[in-house]
Amino acid sequence: MTIGAEKPHKSRKCKQPSDEKSALLLPDRHDNDENAAQEFDGASFTGAVFNLSTTIIGAGIMALPATMKVLGLGLGVGLIVFVAIMTEASLEMLLRFSKVGESVSYGGVMEDAFGRVGRLVFQICILVNNVGILIVYMIIIGDVLSGSSSNGVHHVGVLEGWFGEHWWAGRAFVLFVITIAVFAPLACLKRIDSLRYSSTIAVALAVVFLVITAGIAIIKLFNGSIAMPRILPKVTGITSVWKLFTVVPVLVTAFICHYNVHSIGNELEDSSLIKPVVRTSLVLCFSVYIMTSFFGFLLFGDSTLDDVLANFDTNLGIPYSSLLNDVVRISYALHLVLVFPIIFYPLRLNMDDLLFPSSGPLASDNCRFSLLSISLISLTFFGANFIPSIWDVFQFTGATAVVCIGFIFPASITLKDPHGIATKKDKILSVFMIVLAVFSNLMAIYSNVSALFGKK
């Protein structure tokens, strides 16, 4: 499938602009920046799959067991399947209109359908979504290393468990050191394909988390120390019905990857492989999600916390419990550290296009590049230190920006049909997607706002 302005052919030599914005967001600058281009052979299929899978498998996986606690195992797994199918459909729509309109970015497709206003709305949603996700990553890393408090209970972090309470083990200092030593250097890489090796490691670390969790759950199931979890949700009144909708933003956030599909496709050695890349990544991530949700909820049941990693601070009732707790938490914290630059990549590009739409290539302006990078990393750092729970972030970003990026925008483009390629089936599916997304997320917002004021 063609997503770039140039027609791809097998084993082509890619010309990758030194400025990501010219490739991802501003196709009209592509031809003007030929002198700034650097030759590279193009990204491989495997590298693209790992980069897209890393975009998908982020912090959302940690909140999925908590969705099973709300929905029950049967309904929860069913909704994961449903959201995966809807995600594949929305990506197919997006890529099809990209090909016809010769757009090299999601923002370009939005501008093709709705003009500059469409591009602007999309970029604002990207800022809300990606900043929210990066804040969630930092919150989880802080929870793992420095501990967290939930419902008046303190969950000990790895550093506190190893060395006791010290000022240098506090959340703010630990996150500051990780930001300076790890996030900042990784976030400054110029090409998304440069992250393929770190993405491979990130996916492997997620699998490590899954294997250990599954192993512990199976051992405890066979020795009779845990029971099979409930299949259906607990419904005791209208309030519990509204609460069911609060999981929708979490499920939507778990599959969001639309903002990186074009940048990954633009760098492929053969751009027509982007569809198989998308399908392979979705199958891989869907499998990981199903198993993580099942075994995480099986292991902790109704004691499952919003961030399931926080559950790994107690005696699991098996040999080497303490060691396994630390391995699980540290492996996933490292996973999130490696996912951070994948999410940061489109965030900086969109912020640059939003604030400096008439500027030259971003990579050639060190001052602007540094200013944007420092500002955005600082924003996520302070957000992670002042927002108490990942569930709070998931609820409000997932119910607004994420649902727009993942479902409402692709469906709206299809209904607008600027090139007359949408079928009747496409338009029926688009209407269904928009109505369902708007209704379920309005209910989620209502339920969360009610719960928030109820606590106060």
Automatic annotation (TrEMBL):
One MF annotation (Gene Ontology) recorded for this entry: L-amino acid transmembrane transporter activity
Record's subcellular location: Membrane
Membrane topology designation: Multi-pass membrane protein
Pfam families documented for this protein: Aa_trans (PF01490)
All copies of domain Amino acid transporter transmembrane, residue ranges: 42-447
Cellular component, GO annotation: organelle membrane
Region called Disordered, residue ranges: 1-20
Source organism superkingdom: Eukaryota
Listed name of the protein: Amino acid transporter transmembrane domain-containing protein
Natural source organism: Rhamnella rubrinervis
Organism phylogeny: Eukaryota, Viridiplantae, Streptophyta, Embryophyta, Tracheophyta
